[in-house]
């Protein structure tokens, strides 16, 4: 379980996250929605140690993440799929996937892990020798997800997986998130596409200029008048 308590994060004089608290229980999909600049990415970056917190606490399965280096956080079972995917463009699809397994002490299951990822993403299998930089945006998103899965995560943090993708590809990516969830992986999903994010989540939080302003059952939020007006264009 992930637990964030009263987290504050600043960039110099800018307070990006102002006292947020949230939990993600084992097996849940929780969405964090909000407009540009609300602090969603900052929250994910603080969880995985890329940005330091000013105060507050973050624990994952009882481990204090604020005092754990990023490379160690991966070994605790948490994988971060960043905004913009950040695949290694000059490496092949397969090499990118192998990079995802670097944190595993026992690499003997590498082929099995590759087969599992290729089973989930047949398109990556077809293209396994292609340079990652030449993949389409949707394929790069699949690769970023596949690379994260190579580290055997129990929880994944996803930042704007729908960004820049066609509606059809967004549907495909979200159906894969649901399949990962069905396999028991816990998901914290950051999205501007509130409709998709709420439709697959169990629970959700709304972040506005660094503060959580609403939270609850995702289905309730999907039908909430304020959320519909502000985030669903209703
Ligand atoms: P988006 O959906 O546009 O990615 P977001 O909700 O993820 O937005 P953040 O990227 O977390 O928002 O940004 C929150 C605030 O912190 C913004 O005001 C942003 O300008 C600021 N910020 C983010 N990164 C930095 C940085 N490295 N230096 C200074 N300010 C930053």
UniProtKB/TrEMBL annotation:
InterPro entries for the chain: AAA+_ATPase, ABC_branched_ATPase_LivF/BraG, ABC_transporter-like_ATP-bd, ABC_transporter-like_CS, BCAA_Transport_ATP-bd_LivF, P-loop_NTPase
UniProt cross-references to PROSITE patterns, sorted A to Z: ABC_TRANSPORTER_1, ABC_TRANSPORTER_2
Domain of life according to the entry: Bacteria
Any one GO BP annotation for this protein: L-amino acid transport
Keywords: Amino-acid transport, ATP-binding, Hydrolase, Nucleotide-binding, Transport
Record-linked SMART domains: AAA
Enzyme Commission number: 3.6.3.25
Any GO MF annotation of the entry: ATP binding
SUPFAM superfamilies in UniProt: P-loop containing nucleoside triphosphate hydrolases (SSF52540)
Family recorded in the similarity comment: Belongs to the ABC transporter superfamily.
Identification of the protein by name: Branched-chain amino acid transport, ATP-binding protein
Organism this protein belongs to: Bifidobacterium tsurumiense
């Amino acid at each position: 379980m992930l637990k964030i308590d009263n987290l504050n994060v600043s960039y110099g004089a800018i307070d990006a996250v102002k006292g947020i608290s949230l939990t993600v229980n084992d097996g849940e999909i929780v969405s964090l929605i909000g407009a540009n600049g609300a602090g969603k990415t900052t929250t994910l970056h603080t969880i995985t140690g890329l940005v330091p917190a000013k105060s507050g606490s973050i624990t994952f399965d009882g481990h204090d993440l604020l005092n754990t280096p990023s490379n160690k956080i991966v070994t605790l079972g948490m994988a971060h799929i960043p905004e913009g995917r950040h695949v290694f463009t000059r490496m092949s699809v397969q090499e990118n996937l192998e990079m995802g397994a670097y944190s595993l002490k026992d690499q003997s299951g590498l082929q099995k892990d590759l087969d599992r990822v290729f089973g989930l993403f047949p398109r990556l299998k077809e293209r396994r020798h292609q340079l990652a930089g030449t993949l389409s945006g949707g394929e790069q998103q699949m690769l970023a997800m596949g690379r994260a899965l190579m580290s055997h995560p129990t929880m994944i943090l996803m930042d704007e997986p729908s960004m820049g993708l066609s509606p059809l590809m967004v549907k495909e990516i979200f159906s894969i998130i649901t399949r990962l969830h069905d396999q028991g992986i816990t998901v914290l999903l950051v999205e501007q596409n509130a409709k998709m994010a709420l439709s697959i989540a169990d629970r959700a939080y709304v972040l506005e200029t660094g503060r959580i302003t609403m939270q609850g059952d995702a289905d309730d939020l999907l039908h909430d008048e304020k959320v519909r007006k502000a985030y669903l264009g209703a």
